[in-house]
Amino acid sequence: MSYLLRGMAANGGIRVVAADTTRIVEEIRLMHDASATATAALGRSLTAGILLSHILLKNHQDRISLRFLGDGPIGNVVVDAGLDGNIRAYANNPSIELPLREDGKLDVGSAIGKGELEIIRSHAPKGDEYRSSVSIVSGEVAEDVAQFLAQSEQIASAVLLGVRFKANSTEIMTSAGIILQAMPDADSAALDLLEANVKAFGQLSNKLKTQSLLEVINELCWGLEFELFTKDALPLQFKCRCSDEKALDAIAYFSPSERQELIDQDNGAEVVCHWCNTKRWITAEQIESISKNEIRCPDCDALWYREGQNTMIQANERCACGRKVILPN
User: Fold this and answer.
1) What is the DSSP letter of 319?
2) What mean pLDDT do residues 313-325 have?
3) CA distance 42 to 132
4) Of the spans 9-23, 113-127, 296-310, which averages the highest pLDDT?
């Protein structure tokens, strides 16, 4: 089972959030037939996403989206996570593989490349999204997440992420992560000790070969009186929200002429979920059922409104191309 632990150290001066995501990352690897490098990128990013959700979110209906928008060959790496323990993740090009670095490690940094790390907090049920981003530092994920917390949230944090494979295999042995975060009233001596502990710690994936996640946390918090809050670990699971209805909604964004072309040429269309790789066939009859009463932007053809569906954009807002949106009453 994948699970999450939460606790405090140094009399409440240091927050600790840790997660074992081994089972979920192996599930995603098989789902997308991902290479070792892509699996490492997905595993680190997914683990960071669920840890950040327990740091940045308050409401159990809220979601966090972590997006590495880099120029590397893996394309975008995207994670969706929440306090409910449900996680999903994908990479644009999960089959890419790169040569090992000179130190023998997987080259996740080159796979992701340069660009931006974007964090989006979506507030339930219809609250505004809050977006923040930082430049990608290394693409190795942990360093970038620590940079985000320091720069965007003004919170000093140690971020440790690790994905380890079984010998001579791409099967996951361990995938886990820990964030140790200084709280506003943290004692400076405690922070100095934590920094020394982290520097002496080594690689998380190596430690997990012989220790449990809780034992690793206690080693990192040596001398800081760690207190575990989650006596029963919080379960984590991969859970996609795709459905036949959402697949049809995706086809609905095509223009009427494009939808008719799908009917004439293929008598339907295949829709593939980028999160879970599930393939669904949308029949010609289903495509025909989509209302043709719609309004699109005269300049860029973006969909503004379709009868029978929620409004995609509000009247008097600006389209992505800059044109003012005009909708029927």
Assistant:
1) -
2) 81
3) 21
4) 9-23
CATH number of the domain residue 248 falls in: 3.90.1280.10
d(CA 139, CA 70): 8
- Quick one: 136 exposed, middle or buried, by C-beta within 10 A (0-12, 13-18, 19+)? buried
How far CA 176 is from CA of 42, 44, 192, in Å, comes to: 12, 8, 25
pLDDT, tens digit, for every residue of 213-243?
Answer: 999 999 999 999 999 999 899 999 999 999 9
Domain end call among 195, 211, 238 = 238
φ, ψ at 87 (rounded to 5°): -135, 150
Those residues with Cβ within 8 angstroms of residue 131's Cβ, 6 or more apart along the chain or in another chain: 118, 119, 120, 121
Q: Are residues 277 and 208 in the same domain?
A: no
Q: How large is the average pLDDT for residues 82-95? A: 96
- Domain count across the chain: 2
Q: Which of 301, 326, 322, 299 is nearest to 313 (CA)?
A: 326
The predicted pLDDT at position 310 comes to: 61
Q: Is 78 helix (H, G, I), strand (E, B) or coil?
A: strand
What CATH number does residue 60 fall under? 3.55.30.10
Answer yes or no: do 250 and 168 share one domain.
Answer: no
CA–CA–CA angle 64, 122, 19 (5° rounding): 20
Q: How confident is the model at residue 312 (pLDDT cuts 50, 70, 90)?
A: low
pLDDT tens digits along 142-171? 999 999 999 988 989 999 999 999 988 899
Same structural domain, 195 and 72:
yes
Give residue 94's identity as a one-letter amino acid code. P
Which segments within the chain are labelled E, that is strand? 2-9, 14-20, 63-70, 77-82, 86-91, 115-122, 130-135, 157-165, 172-182, 227-228, 234-238, 268-272, 279-283, 294-296, 303-306
